[in-house]
Amino acid sequence: MSRKLTVILLVLLILTGAMGLKTLVTTHADGAVMMANGAAPAPPSPWKNGAAPAPPSPWKNGAAPAPPSPWK
Amino acid sequence: MPGPIEFMVWCLGFASEVAVVVCAIRAKVFKRYLPLNLYMAASATVELLRYRILNHYGFTSSNYFYFYYYSDALLTITLYLALISLFVIVFREMSAERYVIYGASLLLGGTALFSYLVVQQSSNRLLTHFVVEMSQNLYFVGLVLTYVLWGAILKLRETRTQLIQLVLSLGVYFSLFAVNYAVRNLYPPFSPLSIALLQFLGCFLPVAWAYAFWRIPKDARLAPARLAVIPR
To answer: What residues have CB less than 8 Å from B55, skipping those under 6 apart?
Structure first.
């Protein structure tokens, strides 16, 4: 039992250390993503415009499907 | 579109990934380091597919974008498993493989949960956010784990030269990327240089592992650097 608890403690320590290191490294990050597998050229960062969730469209009220255009 | 230098480095990276597998087969250690070789084989296959998609759809296409980030996440998980296999090899003599596998599964689950908690607020492209976040977090977990493994190797006075070379290469590889990433974030004027360096850094691990399999005999042992001092 004590061995299993030691493993759990080590896992939590490693996880905390890794996330702490990540926070330290990305303190001034501009949304850049670190990719580290292979030598292929990396495409532009997916979070180039910030990581904030997109606001709802200003022209949409409610979730109902839009009716067909009356001018068709 | 990438230029000729980028393509040349890309080809070098692909060739060295294939060389790792070929050298391992030649040195008859393919099965001993099976997860490492599978990672390299997967990496070479992904390189080919990335080239095909880049050629077909273009550098700025969403096809290349999605394939690049999703395949990178899968490769990071494979690299994590390869690293755990090195842990198993080191701790085999202590008969502690069961605990290593238990801890590794727990750590992978914990990282996935942490990543999900971070991205759960973003309703937009939740899966993509999760995949990229998970890949990044697992990368840093791998970095810390490599140093833990190196500490264990020192503590257990491991002498297998090939194993030590493999672990050290992994440590240098992880550290180079972390330093590059930190420089990129802390000093934005150096950002273009560090982005250009990324491809070169990507070649380091396959070259170092190919060297380890090619030049170092599988049963080579390091002589102990110093004798333990016992006070009288």
So the answer is: none
